[in-house]
Design a protein that fits this description.
The protein contains 44 helices and 35 strands. Residues 1-58, 491-495, 1168-1182 and 1192-1245 have low confidence and may be disordered. A nine-stranded mixed β-sheet has the order 14-35-34-33-15-29-32-31-30, with helices on both faces. The protein has a nine-stranded antiparallel β-sheet with strand order 17-16-28-27-26-25-24-23-22, sandwiched between helices. A six-stranded antiparallel β-sheet has the order 3-2-4-13-5-11. With 1245 residues, the protein is α+β, with helices and mostly antiparallel strands. A hairpin with a 7-residue loop joins strand 23 (576-582) and strand 24. It is elongated and about 125 Å long. Helix content is 44%, strand content 16%. Helix 4 (91-100) crosses helix 6 (125-157). It is a multi-pass membrane protein. InterPro entries: ATPase_P-typ_cyto_dom_N, ATPase_P-typ_P_site, ATPase_P-typ_TM_dom_sf, ATPase_P-typ_transduc_dom_A_sf, HAD-like_sf, HAD_sf, P-type_ATPase_IV, P-type_ATPase_N. Its EC number is 7.6.2.1. Mg(2+) binds at residues 445, 447, 877, 881.
């Protein structure tokens, strides 16, 4: 027990308390550090709030490595993470809250409560049971979705990791890690927490990591441990490590880290170069040893994530407004009835027995002496009586339709199936289908989403001449838009096809460059490619089997190019590189040359260049340099003007083709010059303060008087179909923004390649790479840097906005584009500037944000979503895109090469960016149109049904007498009108999928919300009013003089049953008028519902029970069907009721057509399958795919009839194919796809 208290006292001393323990480590650490902050307690981490920068805690944390007891009193968070929405305690209250956020559910709850009171004219079970079932199903669905998140969390938290226990590595779970633990990570393993890199199996304490889950990049990054910790690789040695880490508090900045490591009374500065972030993975390194710094929800990647949002579609929010409008209508009807009841009630109607003198105590609801109470009670009675105006089955039907749309249509669409990875589309939620049809802004990641992250050496410029005959995708696209046809020269004899190399030019391949005018320039060019890099070779030392591991795919492509040109780099040691050079002295001669690498001046975003100083075997000293044209041109010797101007023209051509360019240069060095410079370099490299700044200054001293060799052009291969997809989405009225962690030059190149930006656009570029900001950064004052940067951003935003206004209000049709980097964006998102940023962005056709963090991606998305009130969609493929995906109305995850983090956080998952065309323009648009029709039809039929009850109230003294039987009212939405609505919600199509993509402008109807406006609802309401009057007064007035076969006049239940029959028949037939395409499912739904009504009423009227309410209509239908009057009414009333709708549709289609109706008329005579038969007649040499297509076209199809316009209707292609022995994969819409074989038009006589 005493030992436990001793440890506690020592730990307290380490936190700044008194301790009598001699030689305690708290004293040792304070003695070895200047200005130690170990005495200060860490502040608790704060939750990330979207739209605000994460507050930084002012103090630091002190971590005692390899000593859990010392860290216990601080109370650092554990490493377990949770991404679920609910837990056991919050599920029921939070789940019910989510359900009652729907206005309709609140309304149904109120009606259910009212129906249990004596004033209710209907039985409570008719309202309570449906509401309970709806809530139960919804809660089960929520629980199932959250259970999947919980299972994923369990899997991640239970991932094994090796942690140091004593002098051995023990396997434990991620969730059991604690701050200060020493862990060992093996190759391809993921980092379980934010770690301090201590030691590696690689020489020089280097390891390679992949940060795809953070910044989306699959290229490897280099991390280097402090030289002082290289020896702590074995468990015996690692157990001796007792360092103290003083570092910043947990924050969400992925690219910064400050701290000190106190080891053996020495203070060693820490930088992001020693930080390994959770979610990254170890590559090309056998194993590493590291110390845990931040755990669980305090890791940087988790602090960049957001809580799982509860997304409700914009359509559903608009539906809430419609429900409120219906409730207002209901309230108005009830007020009218209540006032009428108060006026009508009187004891003069002696036959109503309302006089208490003669009849005793009268119920309050019918007491003429208290008209106010009568009115109030009558109002509540009418509320329950008219409650059908808002049907609870509406939400059930919508949920069912959405679920089937997802599981049967989206998930099984072969147009969104990626064959290479065998990945189908996946709808992970069914709440947002219709939102896909109204998207106006798309926010996209770049790497892995727009591109394959596959760099290929494509062209080059050497000695003032361009080499490379290939044509890029952007050149093909530009030519296609201009109406030109480009034919590529195919020269298979010289073409080399290898990953990273897509170059073809017989003038310099296979040693032919020796025949060019100046072969010495080619030698320097190829040697620069083969030597100036930090690439690691792996595998056998042969050109066919070797693989290169590089910090960027560009470097790998350049080294691969050197290999194909005959300069094969195959071996690296810490001080040398070995290159097998071919054709240098004469064609065919091969020799191995070992270059001594003296210094490497690394690339960074400020320098924009990389240099290597090497010594040839003959003692020659050369500096090779490659970098951006702007920085290389500034450092050329005076005699390079001609080469500079020619190369600049070549670079412009490469840039216009969407290629990534680098310039190559070299400088001859003397021994004396190098030795004097190297002394300064060694001093700068060993500096503890401002090391990077001093290294840059020293590099400037030698990177000058360069001789230009030439330039390279690398193509970042886009995903298949990306430019065409973006072009189509742009025509659909969708604006696309690219949010990427890449540097600005790369992002702009990709924007050109994707057709987002072109030379005809006015480009606004807001970059922090300015002299004023650099000077402020050199001074090192954070406050000054923030002030200068914010002022610059403010002025630049104002300037760009003013210039944009001149273009917008002028006669020019020039499109605008905005490019902004992450540092400027951080200040532009400030509350004082975000309005200017939003106004400028919304006026631009394209926006590119580069060097942005995951949280900034979410902030930009939120800015447009909340500021512009537009429907947004975010698409990405890595964990760095999760916040952006969750911040948008709709999140799309790309199930690509970077794990499943984005997919797990998304609403929909697809394998390729190009599938957005089908997802939005086909499925999204269809879902929106179908659900609009479903909701407006529900509104119409229930308003019609309720208004007939309302008209009856006027003839019953406003007493609340029901016109229909309880079961009629309960089953009206559940059985008698349910199936047709489902059929329309699933199978109605205005135009086919091909026409939806051929005319993307049709999508604008969804963006403008054309089909769910108040005007559309008002038209449906007008016809509901009109038809309700027809139903009630035609049947009630006409039946006043009608009688049955026995001579008795019709009673209330005869009239109500006749009216209800007319209502069921009419509202079902009305749906056929509203449908664009009629399938067998429409017929089954409509006529099946009508048949269900007659089957029900025959059975219901033929059975008598002790319940009074049922015996009212006993034998009614048999009596009615024995009269001619019933059949005449059933024929005339629906015709008269639907006549107004028919005439309105005729006028609307002729004189005020929608866009889709125009497309229908244009293509009404199209014969989709004619081309297949013409192909057979014109050419019998069919490819296997064409032959298969022809066989499918010959399969039997279902003939269908259509209203208004004949379009695709359901068939069973895969079924017929299997019968004929032809393979046809099952389509997503086998019950709803084009299958009608249209007849060929007869030749005119």
């Amino acid at each position: 027990m005493s030992g436990r208290w001793d440890r506690l006292r020592i730990a307290t001393a380490r936190l700044g308390g008194d301790s009598s323990a001699p030689g305690s480590r708290a004293r040792r650490s304070n003695a070895g550090s200047v200005g130690s902050v170990a005495e200060l307690r860490p502040l608790p981490s704060r939750t990330v709030t979207l739209g605000r920068i994460q507050p930084q805690a002012p103090t630091h944390r002190t971590i005692y490595c390899n000593d859990r007891d010392a860290n216990i009193p601080v109370g650092y968070k554990g490493n377990s993470v949770s991404t679920t929405k609910y837990n056991v305690l919050t599920f029921l209250p939070k789940g019910l809250f989510e359900q009652f956020r729907r206005v309709a559910n609140l309304y149904f709850l109120m009606i259910s409560i009212l129906s249990t009171t004596p004033i209710s004219p209907v039985h409570p079970i008719t309202n309570v049971v449906p509401l309970s079932l709806v809530l139960l199903v919804s809660l089960i669905k929520e629980a199932f979705e959250d259970w999947k998140r919980f299972q994923n969390d369990l899997t991640i938290n239970a991932t094994p990791v090796e942690v140091l226990q004593g002098q051995r590595w023990e396997i434990t779970q991620w969730k059991k890690l604690q701050v200060g633990d020493i862990v060992r990570i093996k190759q391809d393993g993921f980092f379980p927490a934010d770690l301090l890199f201590l030691a590696s199996t690689n020489p020089d304490g280097v390891c390679y990591i992949e940060t795809a889950n953070l910044d989306g990049e699959t290229n490897l990054k280099i991390r280097k441990a402090l030289e002082k910790t290289w020896d702590y690789m074995t468990p015996e040695k690692a157990s001796e490590f007792k360092g103290e880490i003083q570092c910043e508090q947990p924050n969400n900045s992925l690219y910064t880290f400050t701290g000190n490591l106190i080891l053996d009374k020495q203070t060693l500065p820490l930088s992001p170069n020693q930080l390994l972030l959770r979610g990254c993975s170890l590559r090309n390194t056998e194993s590493i040893v590291a110390a845990v710094i931040f755990t669980g929800h305090e890791t940087k990647v988790m602090m960049n994530s957001m809580n799982v949002p509860s997304k409700r579609s914009t359509f559903e929010r608009k539906l809430d407004k419609l429900i409120l409008a219906l409730f207002s209508t209901l309230f108005t009807m009830c007020v009218i009835g209540a006032i009428g009841s108060g006026i009508f009630i009187s004891d003069k109607y002696y036959y109503l027995a309302l006089d208490d003198k003669y009849w005793g105590k009268i119920e309050d609801q019918f007491n003429p002496k208290n008209r106010f109470v009568v009115s109030i009670l009558t109002m509540f009675t009418l509320i329950t009586l008219y409650s059908t105006i808002i049907p609870i089955s509406l939400y059930v039907s919508i949920e069912m339709i959405k679920f089937i749309q997802c599981t049967q249509f989206i998930n099984k669409d072969l147009h969104m199936y990626h064959t290479e990875t065998q990945t189908p589309a996946l709808a992970r939620t069914s709440n947002l289908n219709e939102e896909l049809g109204q998207v106006e802004y798309v926010f996209s990641d770049k790497t892995g989403t727009l591109t394959r992250n596959l760099m290929e050496f494509f062209k080059c410029s050497i000695g003032g001449q361009i080499y490379g005959t290939g044509i890029t995708e952007i050149e093909k696209g530009s030519a296609q838009r201009s109406g030109l046809r480009i034919e590529e020269d195919k020269k298979p004899s010289t073409t080399e096809h290898e990953k990273g190399f897509n170059f073809d030019d017989s003038r310099i391949m296979r040693g032919a460059w020796r025949n060019e005018p100046n072969p010495d320039v080619f030698v320097e060019f190829f040697r620069c490619l083969a030597v100036c890099h930090t690439v690691l070779p792996e595998g056998e030392e042969s050109p066919e089997k070797i693989t290169y591991q590089a910090a960027s795919p560009d470097e790998s492509a350049l080294v691969t190019a050197a290999k194909n040109f005959g300069f094969f780099f195959y071996r690296r040691t810490p001080t040398t590189v070995t290159v097998r050079e071919s054709h240098v002295e004469k064609i065919g001669k091969v020799e191995d040359v070992q270059y001594e690498i003296l210094n490497v001046l690394e690339f960074n975003s400020t320098r924009k260049r990389q240099s290597v100083i090497c010594r040839y075997p003959n003692g020659r000293l050369v500096l090779y340099c490659k970098g951006a044209d702007t920085v290389i041109f500034e450092r050329l010797s005076p005699g390079n003007q001609e080469a500079k101007s020619i190369t600049r023209e070549h670079l412009e051509q490469f840039g216009a083709a969407g290629l990534r360019t680098l310039c190559l240069a070299y400088r001859e060095l003397t021994g004396e010059l190098y030795e004097s410079w190297n002394e300064k370099f060694v001093q700068a490299k060993s500096a503890l303060r401002d090391r990077d700044k001093k290294l840059d200054e020293v590099a400037e001293l030698i990177e000058k008087d360069l001789i230009l060799i030439g330039s390279t052009a690398i193509e970042d291969k886009l995903q298949e179909g990306v430019p065409a997809c973006i072009e189509t989405l742009s025509q659909a009225g969708i604006k696309i923004w690219v949010l990427t962690g890449d540097k600005m030059e790369t992002a702009i190149n990709i924007a050109y390649a994707c057709n987002l930006i072109n030379n005809g656009m006015k480009q606004f570029i807001i970059s922090s790479e300015t002299d004023a900001i650099r000077e402020a950064e050199d001074r090192g004052d954070p406050v000054e840097i923030a002030r200068v940067t914010k002022e610059f951003v403010k002025q630049d935003l104002k300037r760009c906005l003013e210039e944009a206004q001149t273009y917008i209000h002028g006669v020019s049709t020039t499109k605008l584009a905005l490019v902004i980097d992450g540092k400027c964006l951080m200040y532009a998102l400030d509350p004082t500037l975000r309005v200017d940023l939003l106004n400028l962005s919304l006026n631009c056709s394209s926006v590119v944000c580069c060097r942005v963090s995951p949280l900034q991606k979410a902030q930009v998305t939120s800015l447009v979503r909340k500021g512009a009130k537009k429907i947004t969609l975010s698409i990405g493929d890595g964990a760095n895109d999760v916040s952006m995906i969750q911040a948008a109305h709709v999140g799309i995850g790309i199930s690509g090469l970077e794990g499943m983090q984005a997919v797990m956080a998304s609403d929909f998952a697809i394998a390729q960016f190009r599938f957005l065309t089908d997802l939005l323009l086909v499925h999204g648009r269809w879902s929106y149109i179908r659900l609009c029709k479903v909701v407006t039809y529900f509104f119409y039929k229930n308003l019609t049904f309720t208004l007939t009850q309302f008209w009856f109230t006027f003839q019953t003294g406003f007493s609340g007498q029901r016109f229909y039987d309880d079961w009629f009212q309960s089953l009206f939405n559940v059985i008698f009108t349910a199936l047709p609505v489902i059929a329309v919600g699933l199978f109605d199509k205005d135009v086919s999928a091909n026409l939806s993509k051929k005319y993307p402008q049709l999508y604008k109807e969804g963006i403008n919300n054309t089909f769910f406006r108040w005007r559309v609802i008002a038209i449906w309401a007008f016809f509901a009013l009109y038809q309700s009057i027809i139903f009630y007064y035609f049947t009630a007035s006409a039946s006043r003089y009608g009688h049955n076969s026995s001579g008795k006049i019709f009673g209330i239940w005869d009239v109500s049953t006749m009216t209800f029959t007319c209502v069921v028949v009419t509202v079902n037939l009305r749906l056929l008028l509203a449908s664009n395409s009629i399938t067998r499912w429409h017929y089954i739904g409509v006529f099946g519902s009508i048949l269900a009504w007659f089957v029900f009423i025959f059975i219901y009227c033929g059975v008598i029970t002790p319940y009074d309410r049922q015996e009212n209509i006993y034998f009614v239908i048999y009596v009615l069907m024995g009269t001619f009057f019933f059949y005449l009414t059933l024929l005339l009333v629906p015709v008269v009721a639907l006549l107004g709708d028919f005439l309105y549709q005729v006028v609307q289609r002729w004189f005020f057509p929608y866009d889709y109706q125009i497309i229908q008329e244009i293509h009404k005579d199209d014969l989709e399958h004619r081309t297949r038969f013409e192909l057979l007649e014109g050419n019998n040499n069919l490819t296997p795919e064409e032959a298969r297509s022809l066989e499918l076209s010959r399969l039997p199809r279902e003939k269908s009839k259509h209203t208004g316009f004949a379009f695709d209707s359901p068939g069973y292609e895969s079924f017929f194919a299997s019968q004929q022995g032809v393979y046809a994969p099952q389509r997503a819409w086998d019950v709803a796809r084009r299958a009608s074989m249209k007849q060929r038009p007869q030749p005119r006589r």
